[in-house]
Specification:
35% strand, alpha+beta, Acyl_CoA_acyltransferase, 7 strands
Amino acid sequence: MSYTLRKRTKEDVLEFITWTYDGDYSFYDNNIQEEKVQGFLQSIDTDRYFSIINDEGELMGNCEFFNVGEDGEEIIAVGVQMKPVLTGKGNGLKFIKTIIEQGRERIGYTHLELAVVDFNQRAIRVYEQAGFKRKGEFQNCIRGREYRFIIMEKDW
């Protein structure tokens, strides 16, 4: 099975916002933050926000590329989300490689960063297998709780 990035549609977003995850991974649930839902709705048919589909056209996940640079510097970062029923089943490396490769074709970056919450060890392992290295970390308060995030980067 292969994956393809395409522009987000309203139908995709309406599915994204129903996604919920088990256990600690419920941190990634899309329906618990109104600003996350609104962000999804505003990202329909934009240039750096994508849905990921399989060969049959089924929705497999989403990703977005955004600038995290300061003072006019452009540093492209990626946010990634896999459909809940696919997580933990060995699909991650192919999924992230598709995002990286097709994202580079569309956006043209030579440096890419991402942030992942530190308890998500399976995602960290996948990112490391894809060639990302740890760059740093930061704390962020989300829904009243402090989380530690690992910043990872990859160069070409």
